[in-house]
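$ fold --in a.seq
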Amino acid sequence: MAAPPAVSVMGMKKAIVTMAGAALLVAGCGGGGEATSAVESPSEAPASPGAQSPGAQSSGAQSSGAQSPGAQGRDVPEALRFKGETLAGEQFDGAALAGRPAVFWFWAPWCSKCRSEGPNVAKAAEKYGDEVSFVGIGGLEKDKGRLRDFVSRTGTGNLTHLDDRTGRLYSHFKVTSQSSFLFMAPDGKTSKDSGPLDEDELSRHVDELLG
């Protein structure tokens, strides 16, 4: 008569084990997604406050009028938050101009006004030397060879010239015609004028930048 209770106890143990296994299986299916999402790999970990993704940095997305640290700790005005490429194929970062006066000259290779004022721009750039940064922005043309030919013909090889065949920089600076000039003071304030400008007119504008 002792055998039946033993069988009953064994049966109960098997039932308990079976129920425990079933409970673990249910927990694994139902909670698996939550457990996985709680453990993140380093590549999926959320960025710390203030960190930016590479895309956000390259697009320069910041609040309007805000400034960010530039070269040597200077603040970078909104207008200088751009990157481009020189006609020589080198990368150019507008932030490098922060804290110093700069003259942007917007030209196109087929523009007769631009060609006529080119020598004056070259003289002004030579006159002010390292005091003022002169940057040419050649656009409204698909042929890079014509941009280079313009620089050679106008004798403006002493300037840094940016390749703007896409028109991206024209849009960034809100320039709609050529020739055009944008004069930027060290504090980031800007003024514009349309060409052609002779050597005296250019000097007047630059002297105002220098105070």
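$ fold --in b.seq
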Amino acid sequence: MEKAYINGEKLAVQDESCYDRIKELKAIDETKAGVKGIADAGLLNIPRVFIRPPEELAEEENLLLVAKSKFHVPMIDLEDMENRRKEIVNEIRLASASWGFFQLLNHGIPETVMDGMILGVARFHEQDTEVKKQFYTREFTRKVQYTTNFDWYQTKTAKWKDSFMCSMLSPDLIDPEELPAICRDIMLEYTEHVRILGNTLIELLSEALGIGKDHLIRMGCTNLSVLGNYYPACPQPKLTMGSYKHTDSSFFTLLIQDNIGGLQVLYQNHWVDVKPKHGAIVVNIGDLLQLISNGKFKSAEHRVLANQVGPRVSVASFFSTSSVMKSAKVYNKDLISDEDETDLPVCSNVRVPDYLKHYIKHNNSEGNDGVHSLSHFKF
């Protein structure tokens, strides 16, 4: 029987006869050291709360879902946009409709800033636990939240990652003093670049849908949250996941990742690697954009594999609607043509608060069967 300690505190043992899942969850949670604390303890076997059920592992072994395939995530170059705008808009339309994922090159964010942001996230997670734990919380109304697994007590299997989330623009810029000092300056600099790129992409996506450039802006999709993910090296990566299959609840997400990899998108029943390319930004369509586009754009399911090397670091910037819980807007009818009788609603009338309530319940539920979160609203 292996004894596990984090910061001198003993974790629940792995004895089948007396295993207490809640006790183990609480023991890890109370250390406030996250998954990194477990990794630093040098265990050869990961705690049971991270191990996927045997039937799930066996099922995946038999599925014809392969990461290495003939498919490649679209790469879109924004260079010379003034002269190539129609071409770029068309490429975004095709990628958003078929994949829901693409990578951007020549997007305007300096590589030095992107590299600095990756390093800043790593520094936050790798600083002394006593300093870091002041941000540890499960009160998700805070503008700055650090935790291991936001859904720690809800899901049946924990994810091998730690995260910190900052509500940067909601709609006003966060007070800089609320940000962690160790990465404050780079977060502010990176957010400004992401805001500019996000506004450009909002226009391009609107044009790709055949609507006015300011349509999505008027719908209030400029609320910006930044999520800094840290995936420690895992001694048993095949038994767990960095992130399980999910979609994003946002309009769209901009993501940067280091060179380790592990991000995969589900495309034509294949798990396709989103291969890291230095200087590229990954874009994925979220559920809200699939809703308002009446299914023309796809909110793609994706996941992150655990890895024996690491740590892996990624930074996701979510563009969502501000004051969503007060919103009464019905989104899915906005892009349905009154002239085209075949252009029928894909989903029932969905209000943002109702959708978000279902999304949280669906993705945090132990009974989540892997069905797309929007399936609940389809006719």
